[in-house]
Amino acid sequence: MITDKYKTINATATGIYKEKGSKFLAFAYFVETENDVKIILAQIRKEYFDARHHCYAYRLGADGAIFRTNDDGEPSGTAGRPIFGQMLSHSVTNILIIVVRYFGGIKLGTSGLINAYKTAAADALNNAEIVEKTEMQTIEFCFDYNLMNAVMKLIKDEKIEIVEQIMNVDCQIKMLVAKSQAAVILEKLKKMENH
Taking the model in full, what pTM does it have? Predict the structure, then answer.
């Protein structure tokens, strides 16, 4: 069974944590691809160029199977993993959380760092609106004009969103369907072609 429902955030959210002069600024973003992650990370590094660390974690896909953590120079496991842990405890995916640290001059120790990154990430998630979304898939279908009524009836019956359409002698339609329904819709479209 394909799962296409997932929880994520609907807009960027921020959080903050202060400890012994160090400031931890957390930023949570909705992302869909690793390229989205790279773009946002570059923007944050540019904007907060004077910060000592830009630690992050991301999780992608309805099942959350694609993920990565990064400690950006902090002791191993003290930043990225605690940030990622907050994603798991809030059951969210398609999300990037970056925590920017301004060092305050006093070392926090391993447990202090873990707590700081975890708390900053949790604050950002607590300030976010968590929503349920459906993972979608694009289907492109080319067909003869004489199948127009049948194709449009299927689109209406299945409440499919049309992304793009070209209607000539040869028609082309691009539609967005829930990932779990994609195989069924493709099968129905193929049956129309064969009649």
Answer: 0.81
